[in-house]
UniProtKB/TrEMBL annotation:
Residue intervals of the Scaffold protein Nfu/NifU N-terminal domain: 6-94
Coiled-coil intervals, chain numbering: none
Family as reported in the entry's similarity comment: Belongs to the NifU family.
Protein name, entry field: Fe-S cluster biogenesis protein NfuA
Database matches in SUPFAM superfamilies: Fe-S cluster assembly (FSCA) domain-like (SSF117916), Hypothetical protein SAV1430 (SSF110836)
Amino acid sequence: MSAVSIYAEASPNPESMKFVLNQQLLVDGVSVDYPSLEAAVNSPLAQELFGFDYVGRVFIAQNFVTVTKTHADLAWTQLIPELRQFLKSYVEAGGPLFTVDPAAEQKAAQAATAGDPTAQDGQTAQKIIDLLDNYVRPAVEQDGGNITFKSYHEGVVTVNLQGSCSGCPSATVTLKSGIENLLKRMVPEVQSVVAEGILV
């Protein structure tokens, strides 16, 4: 394993910090969001991170890990060196990231929630997914989070916000003024966008 370098990057959510690695953790387009230790059953890396008493959420994507802290009064300046050193040591030592491939897990979950949409809804949903993947997700990943398509039904798009987005003060504004406007403009059938995963 080559030497791992990691830098920390602030996100729009003051409680979340993005740790960017020079190693690939997941294939592009696949990410995992663990809002609790119990949810992290598939990731030994996330379980280890939850061992730090100030870690409240862990999000893992292609080449970064976003950590959300539980205590607003703890300064990132104190926490970054410890987390960066832990991640560096863990990845360099070849520690296990996942027990089940998240890409396979994600496919199974999407198939389970897809249901049986009408052909028209299916075409509209595919347009929405393409727009989210090509225009929205790259920007959201820059901020240490992710957006995934959940469903489209009668003009309403439901998305899931993950990582730093889930508790971000500006998430609702971004959702309404950015994502909703884009989708309405590009897909006339869309009337509104709602999100799961926003913590207030």
